[in-house]
Sequence to fold (418 residues):
Amino acid sequence: MTAAAASLPPRQLTDAAWLTRPGTRAVFAALAAKGFEARAVGGAVRDALLGRPVSDVDIATVARPEEVMAAAAAAGLEAIPTGLQHGTVTVVADGHAYEITTLREDVETYGRHAKVGFTADWVADARRRDFTLNALYCGADGVLFDPLGGWPDLAQRRIRFIGDAAARIREDYLRILRFFRFAADYGDGLPDREGLEAAVAERAGLASLSAERVRQEVLRLIAAPRGPQMVRLMLEYGLICLVLGQAPRPLLLERVARLETGLGLSPDPHLRLAALAVETREDAEQLRTRLRLSNEAFAALARVEAGKAAFAASMPTGKAKALRYSLGQAGYRWLLLLDWARSGDPVDTGEWRGWWALGEAWQPPALAVSGEDVMALGVPAGPRVGALLRALEAWWIAGDFTADRPAQLAKLRELSGA
Fold:
C-alpha cells in the first residue's frame, strides 16, 4: 500500500454519531419502507470522513417530493414542504431536521439559476454539484458512494471542480469565493491549478453577485484556518480587491489570526474583516454598503478608527482600566488585538499579555451616583445633569475608580456648587 493510499479516510462511516442516531435511522427507514433508495450527501459525509463535527444532514433520494411527504407521513414523521419546486422536503425526526432532496440533473443553466429535472441517476446528480469532495454519498449502512473521485481528493486535501472549472463557475459565480473558502478550510498546499486559472479568468462575474451572498462567503473565508493565506493569494491575482472594493491589508490580518491562535481564541470574522480592510470610518461605510453589514457589525468596524493607537505595550494601568470601562469587554478585546497586531509584537510579549489578562479578569465597577443624586442637590432636570455626571465620571476614572459613594457625592457637590 502506498503512503497516499494509507492516508485515505475509511470507505464507510458505520460509527458516525449522526448516522446512527434514531432520527437519521427513522428517516432512512421511512424511505426504505416505500422502496426508495436514499443516501446522505455533501457536508455531513465530507466532514465525518475528516472526523469533524457534523451539524446538518442532507439526504438525496430517488423519491419525488410528494413521495417523500407520503413516506414520512406513513412513518409518523413531520414533513415540511420547504422547497418543492427544487425537490426538497424537510423531515423532522427525533428533534432533528433533515433536508431530503430528489436526485436532480441540470437541464439548462443560466447564472446562479438552473432549470433542473428530477432523475434516478446518482451520477447525474453528482455531476451538478460544485466540488468533488461535495459529491460524496453514503447509505444507511455507512458505505461510501463516490462516483466522481471525491474520496481521494478529500484525503489529499485537494479542492477540485467537477468537470470543466470555468463552466461550473459560470453557472454560479459565487463558486469563485467558495473555491478559495474551501481551499482555506479543507485544502492543503496551493489550490488546484485549473480551478485557480478559471477563477481568475471568470473574475468579472463577481460583480453580478448579491451583497448578502458575498458577505457570507467572505466572513467564512477569512475565519477559516488558512483564510489569511488564501486572501494573500487572492490579492496576488487581483481578486480580493474586486470583492472588497478597496485595498486590503493581508499582513495585519495574518497577525490578528496568529494572536487569536496564540491566545486560544476562536476566529472572529468581523475582527478579521476590520484587520483586513478598515483603516478609516469611510472604509467601514464602504464595507457596510458592499457587504450589507448589520448595524451592529458596522458600529464595531466604525469604532476601529476612533480607537486606533489606544493601546501600547507600555502604558499606565489606569489607562488600560479606563479603556476596559469605556469600551466594554468586546470593544476592549477588538482594539487591543488590532493595536497589538499593528505593533508586530509576538503573542508572548509580556506587556501585551498583561493588558489582555486585565481585560479578561478585571470587572469595572459602576458609578455609585445617578441623575437623581444630582437633582437632589437642586440642579433642575436638563442637560446640566448629564454634564455634571460626565465630569464626575471623568474624575472618578482618573482616580482609578477608587472613590466610593460618599466621596463621589462630595465631589458632585463641589462640581455643582451646591
